[in-house]
Specification:
single chain, alpha/beta, Rossmann fold, eight-stranded mixed β-sheet, 9 helices, 8 strands
Length: 225
């Protein structure tokens, strides 16, 4: 199981499906969904990310905006994807409400979030400790379901496994997600290297292997439950 297969399972058939990718980053998911015929609109608060996404997927639409204030009318989309992004939002509960607002009746929201566990998390936390914000994202999802704002159509946990040739490849990977991490990498490299080597396994080819558990929720807004 992986995130892309979950998107397919949740929204199939993708051809012609109007999807909003909230926290789209540089457009990797948008590119994959567009290739499958989806009509994708990406949103990210980072203007650099929006420029990169526009260059990568010129046939999609991208907007610079926050997840808590989406610049779209009610019911503009058939579904929403929030992939590895909810924990970066200052108010994740508000982001879920906005996602619900912009999808039509019967639409679904797929939220995939990294958990505060696993070897990838252990290697990352010396650079940036996301333990609190990752937990807050899970609390926001649970609270929204408990309040009756959504029903949960699916709740599944799986692992993303990544292999890196060396420490440098890992550092480039995490800095690409958030360039602000480069300062922490520069200032704390010895401790970061120690954490990386302690957390990583090795594969037969000598690569460094890190696992990140992810939890996926498929949420249906109450009006479409």
């Amino acid at each position: 199981m992986d995130s892309l297969s979950l998107v397919h399972d949740t929204f199939a058939p993708l051809s012609g499906r109007r999807l909003v990718d909230i926290g789209c980053g540089p457009g990797h998911l948008a590119a994959a969904l567009t290739a499958q015929g989806a009509v994708v609109t990406g949103v990210d608060p980072g203007t650099d990310a929006v420029r990169a996404a526009t260059a990568r997927v010129p046939q999609a639409r991208f907007e610079a905006a926050s997840a808590e204030a989406l610049p779209f009318p009610d019911g503009a989309f058939d579904g929403a994807v929030i992939l590895n992004a909810l924990h970066h939002v200052p108010d994740p509960r508000a982001a879920l409400a906005e996602a619900a607002r912009v999808i039509g009746s019967g639409g679904r929201i797929l939220v995939v979030e990294p958990l505060a566990e696993g070897s990838f998390f252990a290697a990352l936390r010396t650079i940036e400790d996301e333990g609190t914000v990752r937990a807050q994202a899970q609390v926001a999802i649970a609270a929204a379901v408990a309040a009756g704002e959504f029903t949960c159509a699916r709740d599944v946990t799986f692992a993303r496994r990544e292999t890196f040739a060396d420490l440098g490849a890992f550092l480039e990977r995490v800095a690409a997600v958030d360039p602000a991490r480069r300062a922490a990498i520069r200032d704390g490299r010895p401790a970061i290297e120690a954490a990386f080597l302690a957390a990583a396994g090795r594969d037969a080819a000598g690569g460094y292997v890190l696992d990140q558990p992810l939890r996926a929720h498929v949420l249906v807004p109450a009006r479409g439950a």
